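Let us practice reading a record.
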Amino acid sequence: MKTFFKYLMIATLALGVTPAIAAIWQWSLTPASNGTADPTINWAVGMAPSAVDPSARAMMARIAEWRDDTSGALVTGGTATAYTVTTNQSNGGNGICTGSYPINGTQIVVTMNVTNGASPYLTVDGCNALPLASSGGVFVPTGYLQAGSTYRLTFNSTYSNWILQNYASSIQSIGGATGVITLSTGLQVVSNALSVVKATAANYFAAASNTFLSSDIVFSAEVTFSPSATPTYDFSTFLNGSTTMTSNITSVTMTNLKAGQAGMITYIQPSSGGPYTLPATFNSNFKFPGGVQPVLSTTANAVDIIFYSCRSATFCAASLNKAFN
């Protein structure tokens, strides 16, 4: 038998032909058809005893090639839109190709060398460059195949595509511009990890959308206002505020009031000087019981608080409570 293969090799070389060594994907489900499926394996009836050992070892090698081609050990080469990979089954033979295409159902598992761009193709063992698809005829989205991640691909002869197994279309449906997942609903991707967008104090005071609120922001510290005769209170920057008065307040301007906001504004008389007063009409957006405008305590160090709760941007129920000290 060894002599036969020796002369077969000489004959094929003389004709300028390289003997094809088949891959496991080309083995047949029909036992009788496997007699010539792989030139390195001989299970012919009446085979010489000396052929048993090399045939068994060759089968082990074929299975090991298939094992490593479906384990994720293969790493692609090429670019983000034109990948290449060489299988272990290509060693010394034609790999997974029969002509220009693999056999339908052929599978490989590859680790990507670079994150994919738009409309990526894959060339395996010198076969035709074929689309990497999420389903038949549909390219995987840009950025879906991540560098360093491993994917199982199956060749589909109907579409001549390498189709990605277990494609998570639900992730793409909420995808966006940064990597695979970028959300406008309070989630983000940072270093390939999904996390929430946590609200800052400014987000909370401004009622910003698409952020998640934590208790440390809800229970925020009181804001200290700089003394002024004509203060402007920006309600997108605080819930509770206070000021130690250094002069009479002649007018109060309010901006960014919003329905549902509630808190308090504290006025503290100085230890000396004063007492200082509020304007005759505090602000038209603050509605006091009976329309009676607030009048501050006149004693030194007096602490008076206006509590407020807004029904709308122009109607905040307000009440002055005096002399907390």
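A brief commentary: The longest strand covers residues 303-310.
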